[in-house]
Design goal:
The structure is a single chain. With 595 residues, this protein is α+β, with helices and mostly antiparallel strands. The strands form eight sheets. Strands 4-3-2-1-5-6 form a six-stranded mixed sheet, with helices on both faces. The protein has a six-stranded mixed sheet with strand order 12-11-10-8-13-14. Strands 21-28-27-24 form a four-stranded antiparallel sheet. Helix 5 (120-130) links the parallel strand 5 and strand 6. Helix 13 crosses helix 14 and helix 15 (419-436) packs antiparallel against helix 16. 49% of the residues are buried.
Length: 595
């Protein structure tokens, strides 16, 4: 089965054998992770589409891949000759997966999906969509298992401890906070399958998932005990002993099923968006309390010690970027061959020279001209651009450090750029500053802040398809919740902005086939003051790297915006100058000059 179309044919044969009329393949694993271990990359294996998200629906006469606007151009290329139709999720004439099934299914048809990767929330929504046709949801069939002969095994990377001074809260403190939240919810037990939540609660890290320092596991917390279900061969005996001393025992990864079956007739707290129906099928004796994992809220609010560590990580990251951009500009000036792949190699190497660096925090996006118009573009050895001629280069990258997680996007000019480039760049910058300079009430819904970043673009009848901001972990996932800055998420619960939350600020503008612009800093919500109207927050800029003023159309900036930019560059220079020298320092001086 060397081609996607042949794999699709084999899937249809397997569907017919089990009398399944429509089969869904999700971009998910038993932990609802963003980045998936190879074992659960079934959507990529079947379709050839390598983007990070997407859903496949297959029937006897149709196969479609649903992806949002970030991936439309990429998917269109990669689905060629696959036998699959690109469904441009978000377009007015393209229904959602559930709406499509609701409209297309005949009465009493069977829809199949692997229960091991289907969240409780997704299952509830899917069952609701199937009620019109009285169709049946079949969740006990992993059809890929029968047709994927060389399916990779599960990862086996070691689990390590995240220790002081980088870990600033003890396991006992984290467990106590979670147990208090359990008691408030009326639950005696709490199941956590989300890998970043488990890593946070237990101060453990791993590398089972690309870019995120987490490990495959489940955690079951009781009133006075906790059990970590993980491949024991990943852990040193000394670490297991330290966990035991903190009241955490270690069992095998698959033992979670038996532990859930043995639970007494009590209440079990689960996050319906981050727990699968396959796992919960074993918890037959309990009553479920469906709420956000308490640990997700706790870890989103960084304490003062963590924020201090992140500031140091940002200085390290900023110094690495100074070295990288100094190299890049010299290479361009000297006519050295540079490609999008070279940029990834060089920027990662610069970070690796910094203290406490562990790995990139996601796959570097280096997109020149038209490639930059694809928000989640990724160069490959088979398809990449050489950086030559004139245009804009977009670089979105980040690092995992023991003392923090970074995520930054910058756009730089190559050769000569025109007024149209500078106008687009400046409009995006105005939006980025608009959010960065905001003052707002504490606990204000984060999605509603999105308008501040879009207003300058909307005023020119322009927009971008992705959200403006996502939460960022502390040496954890580069994308975390519950807060998000996106006007499309205004109905989501638990998105209130609180002091200590770290969020990205990344408006953009993309012109397909021409160029893309995105400017991204990480910002931290901090107290702004108190009045008779309540407590207010503002943002501290954490990211330290110049914004290229050569791309700015100066008359489009207000005096307030110009003042913000010059003050930001003054702070960038003050913090980074002691950490760089030579060409990197000269580059920093030039790029932070006031305008």
């Amino acid at each position: 089965m060397s081609t996607a179309s042949e794999r699709l044919q084999q899937l249809r044969i397997a569907m017919a054998a089990q009398h399944i009329d429509a089969y869904l393949i999700l971009s998910a694993d038993p932990h609802q992770s963003e980045y998936l271990p190879e074992y659960w990359q079934g959507r990529r294996w079947l379709s050839g589409f390598t983007g990070s998200v997407g859903t496949i629906v297959v029937t006897s006469d149709f196969a479609g891949l649903w992806v949002d606007s970030r991936y439309w151009e990429q998917a269109e290329k990669q689905l060629c000759d696959s036998g699959m139709t690109l469904m441009k999720q978000g377009q007015a004439d393209v229904p959602s997966v559930n709406a499509w099934l609701e409209a297309r299914l005949a009465n009493r048809q069977v829809v199949g999906v692997d229960c091991h990767v289907l969240s409780l929330k997704a299952a509830q929504e899917l069952r609701q969509a199937l009620t019109r046709s009285d169709s049946i949801l079949k969740t006990d069939s992993d059809l890929l298992a029968a047709i994927w002969p060389d399916r990779p095994g599960l990862p086996a990377a070691p689990v390590v401890e995240h220790s002081a001074p980088f870990a600033t809260r003890s396991r006992q403190q984290n467990l106590q906070a979670v147990r208090q939240a359990m008691a408030q919810a009326g639950a005696q037990w709490h199941l956590i399958s989300a890998l970043d939540d488990i890593a946070w609660v237990l101060n453990l890290r791993g590398s089972d998932v690309s870019y995120n320092p987490v490990f495959l596991s489940h955690l079951l917390i009781g009133p006075d005990s906790a059990v970590l279900f993980v491949d024991k061969t990943k852990m040193e005996p000394e670490l297991i002993a330290r966990l035991a001393a903190d009241g955490v025992t270690v069992e095998g990864y698959e033992d979670i099923q038996g532990a859930l079956t043995a639970l007494p007739h009590e209440a079990l707290l689960v996050d319906p968006a981050r727990t699968t129906v396959g796992l919960l099928a074993h918890a037959r004796s309990v009553s479920l309390i469906e709420k956000l994992n308490p640990s997700q809220r706790f870890k989103s609010v960084k304490n003062q010690a963590e924020i201090a560590n992140v500031r140091q990580a940002m200085e390290q990251d900023g110094a690495a970027l100074c070295e990288f951009f100094a190299w890049f500009e010299a290479a361009m000036e000297n006519g050295e061959p540079v490609t999008e792949l070279t940029i990834d190699e060089q920027i990662t190497a610069a970070r690796a020279r910094q203290p406490h660096f562990v790995s990139p925090s996601f796959s570097t996006i280096a997109g020149f001209n038209a490639n930059g118009a694809m928000p989640h573009y990724m160069a490959t050895p088979e398809s990449y651009s050489v950086i030559e001629g004139d245009g804009l280069l977009l670089i979105d990258s980040g690092g995992q450090y023991l003392n923090g997680t970074t995520d930054i996007t910058r756009v730089v000019p190559v050769g000569n750029i025109g007024a149209h480039h500078r106008r687009d760049f400046t409009l995006v910058l105005k939006g980025m500053i608009g959010l960065a300079a905001a003052v707002f009430p504490e606990d204000y819904p984060a999605p509603l802040l999105d308008t501040l970043a879009r207003a300058p673009l909307w005023a020119q009848l322009l927009d971008f398809g992705h959200g403006t901001g996502h939460g960022v972990g502390y040496f954890l996932n580069v994308h975390e919740g519950p807060q998000m800055i996106s006007h499309r998420a205004y109905r989501f619960p638990d998105t209130e902005m609180k002091a200590g939350m770290i969020t990205s600020d990344e408006p953009g503008l993309y012109r397909p086939g021409q160029w893309g612009i995105r400017i991204e800093n990480l910002i931290c919500a901090v107290p702004a003051g108190q009045s008779e109207f309540g407590n207010y927050l503002k943002f501290e800029a954490l990211t330290l790297c110049p914004i290229d003023t050569r791309c700015i159309e100066r008359p489009l900036l207000s005096e307030q915006e110009l003042s913000w930019l010059n003050a930001y560059h003054e702070e960038v220079y003050r913090r980074l100058a002691p950490r760089v020298s030579g060409a990197a320092l000269a580059w920093l001086q030039a790029r932070t000059a006031a305008i």
